[in-house]
Amino acid sequence: MTKLNKKTIALVAHDHMKAELVDWSRAHIEQLKQFNLVATGTTGGLISESLNLTVHRFKSGPLGGDQQIGALIAERKLDCLIFFWDPLNPAPHDPDVKALLRLCSVWNLPVACNRCTADLIISSPLFDSDEYLRNVPDY
Q: Quick check: is 66 catalytic?
């Protein structure tokens, strides 16, 4: 049975976390093949080239990619954010990162900021279930 409305997952990683996200994606490649994948520029390129997956690439995070993914969240066109951010190396665009994570909370969107949480989300039977409907606030 083919799903008509595939869920969309955004993949984002700070520079020191990109290899970790590529490794995580490799471990979950069969699950990821079932979804529409979007990513910020460099991260999307690495995942696409390393794993031969189709990934829609937005701009690099500091150049507006974070905001482009944020727009997907606000428009209810994103189902999950996997964002391996680097807690030990502050980025010059930290306000953009905070805004992106804030939107996930505002719109009750599942977000994973580390490998453990990403593993739990991608392996949950609820995540790709037609029976589970995320409660989206009506502002």
A: yes
